[in-house]
Amino acid sequence: xxxxxxxxxxxxxQFREMGHRLIDLLxxxxxxxxxxxxxxxxxxxxxxxxxxxxxxxxxNGNADDFFEKVIQRTTHTxxxxxxxxxxxxxxxxxxxxxxxxxxxxxxxxxxxxxxxPTAMERIITDHICKKVGYGETSRGLLTxxxxxxxxxxxxxxxxxxAKHNVWTEGSSQQLGIMVSEEAxxxxxxxxxxxxxxxxxxxxxxxxxxxxxxxxxLENYHAKALENGxxxxxxxxxxxxxxxxxxxxxxxxxxxxxxxxxxxxVDGAHGGAAIFSKKYKHLLAGIEKSxxxxxxxxxxxxxxxxxxxxxxxxxxxxxxTFVQKADYLLTHTDEEDWYNGGxxxxxxxxxxxxxxxxxxxxxxxxxIFDQNVTKLYDLGKEFAQLIHSDSNFELAIEPMSNxxxxxxxxxxxxxxxxxxxxxxxxxxLLEDGEFYMVQTQLRGVHYLRTSLMNxxxxxxxxxxxxxxxxxxxxxxxxxxxxx
Length: 482
Ligand SMILES: *Cc1c(COP(=O)(O)O)cnc(C)c1O
Hints:
Elements: H1 6-9, H2 12-34, H3 47-60, H4 66-72, H5 92-104, H6 115-132, E1 139-143, H7 146-161, H8 166-169, E2 175-180, H9 185-193, E3 201-204, H10 217-226, E4 230-237, H11 249-259, E5 262-266, E6 291-295, E7 307-311, H12 315-319, H13 326-330, H14 353-387, E8 392-394, E9 402-407, H15 414-431, E10 437-441, E11 444-450, H16 458-476
Parallel strand pairs: 2-3, 2-4, 4-5, 5-6
Antiparallel strand pairs: 1-7, 6-7, 8-9, 9-11, 10-11
The chain binds pyridoxal-5'-phosphate (PLP).
Residues 86, 145-147, 184, 186, 237, 241, 266, 268-269, 295, 305, 307 line the site of pyridoxal-5'-phosphate.
GO molecular function, one term: pyridoxal phosphate binding
Protein name: Aminotransferase class V-fold PLP-dependent enzyme
Family: Belongs to the group II decarboxylase family.
């Protein structure tokens, strides 16, 4: 068959063969990574080296090697030594739903361009609303990521709470939101996209434990009013990204009610704890929120990107992007829940509901409970190990599976320790056995880990600390004199 023809593009035999080969490769990959058999989590290269390698492959490589090369040249989330970012470890079944969705490519902007994923989305979001503790009038949707979901929620909040209709009239009053200074940067970005500016982003300080200092809310709110800012929403982090610390949602809910604010919970990472019998107490008060965001691609083992955005009063999800939806109030049985595109930022959207639906059908809530509970438990155990070793120091007692800690040595100054921990992290990256990240908290440089992988054990984390110690000792050793 000729190359470059439609016939060859659609050659069924080739599709079958390549597909089977890919599934075999991925099944081997899962086995080799989850077992920890592969020596590396990441085979790190400088950006310029990586670029050259793919340029060369484009011109000279054998396309038959493409799958293997991609697998080799990516960070292996399934490896138990993958303990870095909050990107989740996808359940293998969700790779199959991803494949199915890619080929069928129903864009979902209107009902008939995605009948089944639309129906599934309704079933799933109704279910999660119930888990959150919302009542019968709640409604949710799926959208492409926590960042977009937070923006969408804040747009709904503005629509519901601003005195003017900004959607039709543009901004005529300085509006504002209140949020912890530790919140994910996307909340700040969303507020700026909405035109709130510096004045409209009221950053509430955190306590020494990195949770929003709710004793300051009254203060900051009054100051904003004095400055002519109409505060319309408050955002609680569940948890905040850098430290993994949850805000006190009960206290924020009380304040929001008292002041008539929209209460939004950014649970992109840890909203998933609603599924954990052991840890759902961290989210106490979430049922009083007006909206909640939960990422499927973080703690719920789905591929990027899929995020649930849930509204306590579903009507608000219908009014975000339209001038009027009054008819919905009078004819609720006529609600066109099935025209998803009216309620989401996206026009075309991937069939992301498939992942949630099949996971829940095959494994039930229990699989989410197991994953969250196991990883949060592991966070606590790892904290104990760090405490027991005088070479290490925790930034703060963890509330989740995110931990910030650093190597310490009594003879070194803060600057020296900062630069030492930075070097440790760089060497870990270049070594590639473990993958972890770093953060700065109040001028102190920490190594940061998100324990996202259900195959990670205390044994792996013990090896990690040993490795860090060895690296630190090498880095601290005096330069050999020749
Ligand atoms: C990850 C995260 C986000 C951003 O979500 P994306 O899905 O990456 O867009 C927002 N808020 C918090 C608290 C997060 O952890």
